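User: Predict the complex.
Assistant: Input components as received:
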Amino acid sequence: MRIRSLTLLMTALFLCASAFAHHGNSAYDEQARVPIKGTVTEFVWTNPHSQIYLDVKDKNGSIVHWSIETNSPGILTRAGWTRRSLKPGDEVTIILCPAKNGAPVAYIGSGDPGTKVIFSDGRELDFKDKTAQ
Amino acid sequence: MFSSLAMAQAPPFNAHDLSGVWQFAPGGGGQGPGDNFPPLTAWGKARYDANKPGYGPKAAPGGNDPILKCDPMGVPRLLFAIWPFEFIHIPGRILMFFEGQHTIREIWMDGRKLPEDPDPRWYGYSVGRWDGDTLVVETTGFNEKTWLGAQGQPHSDEMRTTERYRRVDRNTIDFKLTIDDPKTYTKTWEAEPRVIKARTGVEIPESFCVASEEEEFNRRIRAPAARQNGKE
């Protein structure tokens, strides 16, 4: 278990070194990029903050409910997402910026490059604007 | 040779027609006119001290940003937000249709003067004119409920703003903003110049900020993320 935590920490540190974090969103640690694996329970497609809810097994096997803030439907649409991009039951790994206070709450979005959703088949959803010229 | 060929092939544009979808490029003051504002008056300092933003030098989790309840962002703040907007020319007016909060702002272009004693509004009252190839927009009649940017910069109902939009090529507008608010700032504030880029092909979707939805978001995400030590 200790080794797994260390691996997670090192992954976060490595990703952090190459990440560009924007200035703001002060509730979240925007220097960190932490991978969290779980099962989607809900995807809320709402302006100005879409939301992903995820059930994650902790090290003791208990389920922890994660709540993840992301961009508006307008920004997500331009990044190639739709309201059907995530559905309950999807197994995903999310590279996220966790809340600084340790709560299972996090941010992913266009302000923090490197944050993204990775499906079990390897497909990815990121925040790069596909309409940019 | 190559550059003259490229210039010859560059698509034409009309400097007096800003029609289309645009977006502020990142940089400068971020989501606002900047952190480097003139010294505050005593009144301005009291307002600034009371504002608890989520961005900028005073950033802290939680806070009292008016937009957390979907209050109208107002101008100039909405200009600098992370969403595109559209310029729409109609007879006697130019409209700015913002994706952020799905809002329309009108700029009167029929030669009228600014009103003497306007009712205070979230977006003020705006008149525009062409100064050469620069669209100059003057606004007065603001209420005091909005912030100038996400960093919590205050303003009063005495504020007057002057925006300058100059289209320098098909895809680029140079933008300047002057803020005159002697009740809040001891000097005129010339904000950092910014660049606005064309967002050709982008459609502005329905994007209202709905208070009931934002309240639910606050309950499920914003509040737990801002609690001390992550506890109830």
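The radius of gyration of chain B is 19 Å.
Let me know if you want any component modeled separately.
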